[in-house]
Specification:
By secondary structure, this protein is of the alpha/beta class. The chain contains 14 helices and 19 strands. The strands form three sheets. It has a seven-stranded mixed sheet, with helices on both faces. The chain has a six-stranded parallel sheet with strand order 9-8-10-11-12-13. Helix 8 packs parallel to helix 12. It is elongated and about 115 Å long.
Length: about 425
């Protein structure tokens, strides 16, 4: 009796359970590749048995000889051509043998990569209408749905939000995997994956991805972790989340707490020269002390925010000091009393290394002697803040939706522009292609 095994009938499990010897059908390249991995190989069967005497020390036999063996066998067909494999199965089915037939290219035991079959041009489905499924009435998930709709509307797509799929939509995208229960694969469903923290949820994802088109994680780390837990890698990708881009950057608050002197002992004019090199988007000043009026006007004209107290006010001074990010002092007259109060408030300091400044252990954060020293310290702080802001500048809702559109177009067979953004980012479509490659 000949039994043709399905994809899920694992060859290695059957080997262990039955103990039968194995026959490889085919003596070509793929038979040679499969040979070291198969168990208890007794024969090779091939139509060219007369020309090929043996393979890896195992005799090559004909179908007629196979029929005369007279024992139960496991036969693994190792022929690449799908049409040839169909013909071989027909011929094996006509034999009087007791055998279990496995297709090397279509069996769970061998887990071979299967090339994605490109959809014919006439079968492509252009994306016109995206329906976003959102059951959340609260903040985060609802925000995802609303922001995605806003961007899709801007680009001319029809987009709706509802708590169930719309069969007429080209894509049904769930902002939470929990709302996706695909009964068929006809509705082109994708879903966002987040907060997978139990084996039950992993089992649920596996069930969903039997029919859903793609699960979209929020990070590469989560995608790779889920793949390691057995989620089919070809059915998951990742797209980094977006931020609104509307929050103004926090400025460094720089504090000065002394009055000016006609003898220039405090070098007050250095402030104007410093500000010429700085970006007012990153710095603001709090100044307490008389004589700064003209300088404050000059740096305000440059665009810097300044809270200026032209007289010493002890109560305001106590309130102001903890609000500073850095305390500034560039004089060389033994030290600034404000330096001590800044340290008491836990405020870092950018000051001259002189006088009792030097006697305070760990009191000087940045020691500066010249204008260039102060400029370099502040520019480095500016670049540090700018790098932080720039790190998420591309994490916009437009880019987030564009990456979804690339994945959705790929799933529907629209691949013409699939590589247009290669090397620009790694998530989105490229987390799909990296696996398929």
């Amino acid at each position: 009796m000949v039994r043709f095994m399905a994809y899920e009938d694992n060859y290695f499990d059957m080997c262990e359970a039955l103990g039968h010897r194995t026959v490889i059908y085919g003596a070509g390249t793929y038979a040679k590749k499969a040979f070291p991995n198969l168990k208890n190989v007794a024969y090779i069967c091939d139509k060219c048995a007369g020309e090929i005497q043996s393979l890896n020390g195992v005799s090559v036999i004909t179908l007629a000889q196979l029929e005369s063996i007279g024992e139960s066998l496991l036969i693994v067909i190792c022929v690449k051509s799908e049409s040839a494999r169909k013909e071989i199965k027909l011929r094996l089915g006509e034999l009087s043998i007791d055998a279990y037939i496995f297709d090397f290219f279509d069996n769970a035991a061998f887990d071979l990569y299967k090339e994605k079959i490109r959809i014919n041009d006439e079968e492509k489905r252009e994306i016109r209408y995206v329906h976003i499924v959102c059951e959340d009435s609260g903040w985060i998930l609802k925000k995802f749905a609303i922001r995605m709709k806003e961007e899709l509307d801007k680009q001319g797509y029809q987009c709706t939000i509802g708590n169930a799929i719309d069969p007429s939509a080209d894509i049904n995208h769930h902002v939470s995997y929990a709302s996706c229960e695909p009964i068929t694969s006809d509705h082109n469903e994708t879903f966002m994956i987040t907060h997978i923290d139990s084996y039950n949820k992993i089992g649920f994802l596996k069930h969903q991805l039997n029919r859903a088109k793609m699960g979209i994680c929020m990070s590469r780390e989560t995608m790779e972790k889920l793949a390691s837990y057995g989620i089919p890698r070809e059915k998951i990708c990742y797209i980094n989340p977006a931020q609104d881009g509307v929050i103004n950057p926090k400025k460094y608050i720089l504090g000065i707490t002394h009055k000016t002197h006609d003898d220039h002992r405090k070098n007050v004019n250095i402030l104007v020269d410093l500000c010429k090199a700085l970006d007012p988007n990153y710095f603001a000043f709090k100044i307490m002390g008389s004589g700064w009026d003209n300088i404050v006007t000059s740096i305000k004209d440059m665009g810097f925010e300044v809270d200026y107290y032209n007289q010493f006010d002890y109560e305001e001074y106590i309130k102001m000091m903890p609000l500073l990010d850095y305390y500034l002092f560039w004089g060389f007259d033994e030290g600034s009393m404000g330096f001590l109060d800044a340290l008491q408030a836990g405020v870092e300091t950018i000051v001259t290394p002189q006088g009792y400044h030097l006697d305070v252990k760990d009191g000087i954060t940045y020691a500066c002697r010249t204008l260039n020293d102060f400029r370099d310290v502040l520019l480095n702080l500016q670049m540090k803040r700018k790098r932080m802001i720039d790190s998420v500048s591309e994490w916009s809702w437009k880019n987030y939706v564009d990456k979804h559109l690339e994945v959705w177009n790929y799933l529907l067979g629209n691949e013409e522009d699939i590589y247009k953004n290669q090397h620009m980012y790694e998530d989105g479509i490229f987390s799909v292609l990296k696996y398929n490659a």
